[in-house]
Design goal:
about 550 residues, alpha+beta, seven-stranded antiparallel beta sheet, flat, about 15% strand
């Protein structure tokens, strides 16, 4: 019996390793009885990560509702005549000097009597060293003269800021009228110079509704600001209310019951999530490293035997994009879970960052499920169509984006003074995107102000041309690109995919008939066998 040369043995070993690498988990189990740990771990991780996200979402929902309800309560408490609905991006507005004074004094008076009128768990902010109170600042131009009757103006553009501070001790010992008398010179506004008045104060509150869901309560610090904006000097003073809620660790608390025990259970569950993601991270990283080593073996062998380099497409076959996606998801889940544990223990309050990490990681985990559906020809069409059409779609979007930006800038500069949906660039872009999707078309046409016939005619030409161009032409071409890729993939599945050097090399492989091995005790997940007719299909990573 003749022995094979070392080069032939090396080639056979490489072909066998390549064939095994491109098998799906079920085929690998039938070939070498390799248990699909990564597949089982991904299924477990989907359940655990989704459960973790739901638990955090329910907890975060309480935080959001508490902030929103307090903001609404503050507006009703400190804004005189607030109707319950914001007028625009500001809460309300006033039109007379007396209304400005009444609104300012109303907010100060409500702050003075907060403990007697508020229904919430609110109190003044009080630190160990000092006590914070209410601060009122006014910004105005330096002195000058203005006579609109004869078009005369003499004013300095330099802005001066003057502030007064009212602490809770002063508020408690003096009557409200006395406080206004002491600071009467400050409240003597010259409205033609006045730019804005800003009232700022801090309040403390405790969210007790978390106790009902067996969670530790949160302590809040609310930084509230009321701004009377007179920058336009148009006879309308806009009143803005802004409340920035900062979650803080409660310094001294004691709650009887089983809340702490329930918190410990959730922390243990989060620990299991971190362990499972860390194991998945190690397995996927190991698979990528082994794939790169296999790629290097194939490239070197191909260069030595055939004296030419492997094409870029064949090199990419070894880089499994799904593993990269899983690694990113695992890293984000681990970081997000650690932050969630700190938030649960009331040592951290970064709800927004934690939400982004956990939400994005859960999205990637569920998207990763498509990889295993791709092992079946029927489901693999979606993945292959997306991959084939993506380059053409991106190039098409770049071209269409230039036209879209042109319409955005044009609409902003021309229609901005006459239409509320074109007042700023961000709003214009959102409005045009809504029109592309067929939303709010009649309202966009109808709300244009007819003060200028020329602008009104231009708005019709602008809107009709945009809608016709994007809906009837650009969107149709966009769908045609995807449809063309889908038809191409269907033809490939019927007639065979384009053959590359890697595929030709694998076809020459002396096939090892793994199916003749005993089939006893196979995991339930490997019950799905591929048909023989599917062997010629290329499964793109």
């Amino acid at each position: 019996m003749m022995t094979q040369p070392d080069s032939d043995l090396e080639e056979d070993a490489l072909k066998e390793d390549l064939k095994f690498y491109f098998m799906n988990p079920c085929e690998k189990y039938r070939a070498r009885r390799q248990i699909p740990w990564k597949l089982g771990l991904q299924i477990l991780k989907i359940v655990m990560v989704t459960t973790q996200l739901i638990l955090f979402g329910l907890s975060n929902q309480l935080v959001v509702s508490f902030k929103e309800e307090n903001t609404i309560a503050f507006k009703h408490l400190f804004l005189k005549g607030y109707s319950g609905v914001d007028e625009d991006d500001y809460s309300c507005s006033v039109y007379t000097q007396q209304d400005v004074y009444d609104s300012i004094f109303f907010a100060i008076n409500q702050y003075c009597h907060l403990k007697n009128i508020s229904l919430g768990t609110l109190s003044y902010e009080q630190d160990e060293d000092d006590v914070s109170g209410l601060q009122i600042c006014k910004q105005q131009y330096k002195k000058g003269t203005m006579l609109p009757s004869n078009d005369t103006l003499n004013i300095s553009i330099a802005i001066e800021t003057d502030c007064i501070h009212l602490d809770p001790e002063m508020i408690a010992t003096k009557e409200f009228g006395d406080l206004m008398m002491i600071n009467s010179s400050f409240f003597n506004f010259e409205f033609y110079r006045l730019i804005q008045v800003e009232i700022s104060f801090k309040l403390k509150g405790i969210d007790l509704q978390t106790i009902h869901v067996r969670e530790l309560p949160d302590c809040y610090a609310f930084q509230n600001t009321i701004t009377f904006n007179n920058r336009a000097h148009s006879g309308k003073v806009k009143i803005y209310f802004d409340s920035d809620a900062d979650i803080q660790e409660c310094k001294d608390w004691h709650i009887a019951g089983s809340i702490q025990k329930n918190t410990q259970y959730i922390l243990v569950f989060d620990g299991f999530v971190i362990v499972s993601c860390f194991a998945s991270l190690i397995l996927c990283t190991r698979s990528i490293i082994l794939a790169l080593k296999l790629q290097k073996r194939f490239v070197n062998f191909f260069l030595e035997k055939y004296k030419r380099r492997v094409c870029h497409a064949d090199r990419l076959e070894f880089i499994n994009g799904w593993y990269v996606l899983v690694i990113i998801s695992d890293v984000m889940t681990i970081i997000g879970s650690i932050m969630k544990m700190e938030i649960k223990a009331k040592n951290l309050t970064s709800y927004d960052v934690c939400s982004i990490l956990l939400g994005t990681s859960t999205l990637f985990v569920w998207v990763g499920v498509i990889r295993y559906l791709g092992y079946f020809q029927t489901y693999n069409v979606l993945i292959l169509t997306m991959q084939a059409s993506l380059p053409k779609v991106l190039r098409f979007c770049c071209c269409a984006g230039m036209i879209y930006l042109g319409y955005t800038f044009c609409g902003w500069i021309v229609l901005g003074p006459y239409h509320e949906k074109f007042e700023d660039l961000n709003t214009v872009a959102e409005c045009l995107f809504s029109l592309v999707n067929g939303d709010d078309m009649f309202a966009t046409f109808a709300q244009i102000q007819q003060k200028s016939i020329l602008v009104w005619l231009f708005s019709r030409l602008y809107l009709y041309s945009f809608i016709s161009l994007f809906i009837y032409m650009i969107l149709s071409l966009f769908i045609a690109l995807i449809t063309d890729s889908y038809d191409t993939i269907k033809k490939y599945q019927q007639n065979g995919f384009p053959v590359t050097d890697l595929h030709e090399f694998l076809k020459e492989c002396s096939s090892t008939d793994y199916s003749k091995e005993p089939q006893a005790s196979m995991p339930f997940i490997c019950c799905c066998r591929r048909r023989v007719s599917d062997d010629n299909l290329i499964l793109i990573n």
